[in-house]
């Protein structure tokens, strides 16, 4: 279950999904629209900026993350709450950290087009598309967290994004009401 730390005055939300599903855009918008201060942390960027990796894989054009360094970097931030963690993976984050895990999903044809626009290699597009079709990120979330805190949201249009963010804002308001009643 998620942390019930009395010192946590704001939730920790994990926004995850296959690359190209809109995690960063959702997280940025949510940080702007949340009823309380929520800091958006793009975990991939944090890894690059702070050297939290072991090496760079040229073949896959990605970093091999040093999970211990990453968790050490995030722990003090997560402890106080008010964090939106945006990353293509969620299983590395301890279960006690997350109050809500949002898994964004997108039609694989649309995802393919998004990844092409980003200039991804064919190999990387195929790998990510297969991961989306097989619902690998959703399965990872289900294996890592209590089902009550996982929500799957379609992310195929601007309307989806706006609706999703509004839904998460309402969830934050409910979380805050629940905290106040304790």
TrEMBL record:
Region (LID): 117-127
Residue numbers spanned by region NMPbind: 42-65
One Gene Ontology term from the biological process aspect of the record: rRNA processing
A molecular function GO annotation: ATP binding
Subcellular location field: Cytoplasm; Nucleus
Pfam families on file: AAA_18 (PF13238)
EC number: 2.7.4.3
Keywords noted in UniProt: ATP-binding, Cytoplasm, Kinase, Nucleotide-binding, Nucleus, Ribosome biogenesis, rRNA processing, Transferase
Known catalytic reactions: ATP + H2O = ADP + phosphate + H(+); AMP + ATP = 2 ADP
Annotated binding of ATP, by residue: 20, 22-25, 118
Subunit structure: Interacts with small ribosomal subunit protein uS11. Not a structural component of 43S pre-ribosomes, but transiently interacts with them by binding to uS11.
General function of this protein: Broad-specificity nucleoside monophosphate (NMP) kinase that catalyzes the reversible transfer of the terminal phosphate group between nucleoside triphosphates and monophosphates. Has also ATPase activity. Involved in the late cytoplasmic maturation steps of the 40S ribosomal particles, specifically 18S rRNA maturation. While NMP activity is not required for ribosome maturation, ATPase activity is. Associates transiently with small ribosomal subunit protein uS11. ATP hydrolysis breaks the interaction with uS11.
Family: Belongs to the adenylate kinase family. AK6 subfamily.
Protein name (Swiss-Prot/TrEMBL): Adenylate kinase isoenzyme 6 homolog
């Amino acid at each position: 279950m998620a942390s019930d730390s009395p010192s946590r005055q704001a939730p920790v939300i994990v926004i995850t999904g296959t690359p190209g599903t809109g995690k960063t855009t959702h997280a940025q918008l949510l940080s702007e629209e949340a009823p309380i201060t929520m800091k958006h942390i793009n975990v991939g960027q944090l890894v690059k900026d702070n050297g939290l990796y072991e090496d760079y894989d040229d073949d896959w054009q990605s970093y091999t993350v040093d999970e211990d360094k990453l968790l050490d970097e995030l722990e003090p931030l997560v402890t106080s709450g008010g964090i939106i963690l945006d990353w293509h993976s969620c299983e590395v984050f301890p279960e006690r950290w997350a109050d809500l895990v949002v898994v964004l999903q997108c039609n694989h044809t649309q995802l393919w087009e998004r990844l092409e626009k980003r200039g991804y290699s064919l190999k990387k597009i195929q790998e990510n598309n297969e991961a989306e079709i097989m619902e690998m990120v959703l399965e990872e979330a289900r294996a890592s967290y209590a089902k009550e805190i996982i929500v799957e949201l379609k992310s195929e249009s601007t309307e989806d994004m706006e609706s999703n963010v509004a839904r998460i804002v309402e969830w934050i308001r409910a979380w805050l009401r629940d905290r106040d009643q304790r």
